[in-house]
Design a protein that fits this description.
single chain; 12 helices; globular
Length: about 300
Amino acid sequence: MQENISSSARIPIETQVSTGVLALCFIIGIPGNIAVVVMILRNFKKDNFTLRLMLNLAASDFLCLSTLPWLIYNWITDWQMTHSVCKLLVVMVYTSVFSSVMTVTLMSVHRYFAVLHPHLWNKLGRRGEMVLILSLWILACILSSPTLVTFVVKVKHGKYECDPQFSSDGQRAGIRFCETLFGFVMPFSILVVYYSSLQKKVNETAFFTSKRLTKLVRNIIVTFFVLWIPYHVMNIVDILAISLKSAHPDASANLTDFYNSAEEIVISFTFINSSVNPFLYAFASKSLLHNRDEDTGVPDNGL
């Protein structure tokens, strides 16, 4: 018992904060996403693509959050599992995160076409919509595949951890760049373009401004930006550290130290996204299970 108390006392403050955030995400996010799944299944309509996207988002977020007990365990104690289990859990996290981000992005595209150009979207048909969701998961698996190579069980901070081990600085920089490009820059750009265009067009054609639509669009864009920008800023910091390694070794070392000290806290905050999605998309959208938008009078397929 004395040994356990002593070990916990040596846990860095940033790790204690990070694990506390992760525990809170698990406690709030798991029931929230389960509630969304139950709500959707009880009101499921085969011809409502938004409900299928909501279900896909809740499943992705649930899968992501279900790995948190193992991640907390990995941060506060020695990793006692095999390399295979390490890789499996990390692949689950990355695949579910990419799937969640891409589902949110697809929602913005679908919402734009469903409201403003429904005849174009209807040409896809139910089979085309299912192909989109399947393609989304395939792409998520492809984007998460580098973790199968890079993550191993190794000694870090004086204990065994499931952590990435890169074969070269080039590999590290390339993976960081792809994560930021496909996990933030492209999805966020699509969100801003499609939701902003939707809001503008709806407000132009409606007799009055859609305050609920404006608020929901703003919340979606701001939440996505705030919760994901820290992680990708840290990716850029790591890329800068690599690029400055030869010409400015001291600056590179300082950036690397900063990255290592903030890494756990930044990672923990990204999981908040999977916890707030049920409240942002499902519970906040009053018209999710109806056929018309109360504010604009246009056909509604949810946000």
